[in-house]
Design brief:
This protein is of the alpha+beta class. It folds into two domains: 1-37; 39-140, Immunoglobulin-like (Sandwich), CATH 2.60.40. It has helices at residues 2-28, 30-37, and strands spanning 41-46, 51-54, 62-69, 75-81, 87-92, 96-103, 111-117, 123-125, 131-134. A five-stranded mixed beta sheet has the order 6-3-1-2-9, covered by helices on one side. It has a four-stranded antiparallel beta sheet with strand order 5-4-7-8, with no helix packed on it. A hairpin with a 5-residue loop joins β7 (111-117) and β8. The longest helix is centred in the N-terminal third of the chain and has 27 residues, at 2-28.
């Protein structure tokens, strides 16, 4: 009878480990999968000392901006167009993400991401720039 209970515990343990790895893997690939699905998506990842942007491949009037907060505090940010006609305010808890959709007047409209708290410099979201960081980190 003890060996039967032991096998049940072993199976439960492996199922739990599988579920944990599945969840961790899905969270790490979330932003990358969005870029593949929506070529007009920006992913803005805010860290304590820099911001990493994965830019949209092609300019479009319909743009998605996914913001990942990797800091240890709540992130308050503003996403706006250069002409200030479209403005979104974001409130993102630590280690969370939020997605917004922008409908631009034309595909040449500039988009600006500004962290308000913690305060950081504004970041221009540039179409077709692949991956860039602000401020740029040394690779040495």
């Amino acid at each position: 009878m003890n060996t039967h209970n032991h096998k049940y515990i072993d199976i439960s343990f492996f199922i739990a480990i599988f579920l944990i790895f599945s969840i961790l893997h899905s969270q790490n690939t979330y932003s990358y999968e969005l870029i593949k699905e929506y070529p007009s998506s920006f992913t803005v990842t805010v860290y304590d000392r820099y911001i990493k942007v994965v830019s949209a491949e092609k300019a479009s009037e319909a743009v998605e901006v996914v913001t990942d907060n990797k800091t240890l505090s709540k992130l308050l940010a503003k996403v706006e167009t250069e002409d200030k006609k479209t403005v979104f305010y974001l409130n993102i808890p630590s280690q969370s993400s939020k997605k917004i959709n922008l409908n631009l007047a034309n595909k040449n409209t500039k988009i600006i991401f500004t962290p308000l708290a913690p305060a950081f410099q504004e970041v221009k979201l540039v179409f077709g720039s692949k991956v860039y960081e602000v401020p740029a980190r040394d690779t040495k």
